[in-house]
Automatic annotation (TrEMBL):
GO cellular component labels: endoplasmic reticulum membrane
Main location: endoplasmic reticulum
Reported function: May be involved in the metabolism of insect hormones and in the breakdown of synthetic insecticides.
Protein family membership: Belongs to the cytochrome P450 family.
UniProt subcellular location: Endoplasmic reticulum membrane; Microsome membrane
Keyword NAD listed: no
Keywords: Endoplasmic reticulum, Heme, Iron, Membrane, Metal-binding, Microsome, Monooxygenase, Oxidoreductase
Name this protein carries in UniProt: Cytochrome P450
Positions of heme binding: 95
Cofactor(s) needed by this chain: heme
Cross-referenced PANTHER family: CYTOCHROME P450, CYTOCHROME P450 6A16, ISOFORM B-RELATED
Membrane topology, record value: Peripheral membrane protein
Single annotated GO MF: oxidoreductase activity, acting on paired donors, with incorporation or reduction of molecular oxygen
Length: 96
């Protein structure tokens, strides 16, 4: 982060509401049985992760339609699960 934490929070909140990617696309690298179901994702299955589904989930961002840079205060970032805010993806295929 920079020496401008509020500006960082404003940019992050803007990217939460208007993510540059509509979804992340991945591919299952091995067969995976989804816990609590009979669903099996077979190796090679395409997987789409919708950004707005994550970024507008009230469990992680209360009042998700409201522009609120406080969503990215240090306290709120620490309380949130990782991989919920992914404006540029995550892992080896991240854009930035």
């Amino acid at each position: 982060t920079s020496g401008l934490p509020y500006l960082d929070a404003v940019v992050a909140e803007t990217l939460r509401i208007y993510p540059p990617l509509p979804y992340l696309d991945r591919e299952a690298t091995y067969d995976y049985k989804v816990p609590g179901s009979d669903l099996v994702l077979e190796k090679g299955t395409p997987i789409l992760i919708p950004m707005l589904g994550l970024h507008f989930d009230e469990e992680y961002f209360p009042d998700p339609k409201r522009f609120n840079p406080d969503n990215f205060s240090e306290e709120n970032k620490k309380a949130r699960k990782s991989c919920v805010y992914l404006p540029f993806g995550d892992g080896p295929h991240a854009c930035i």
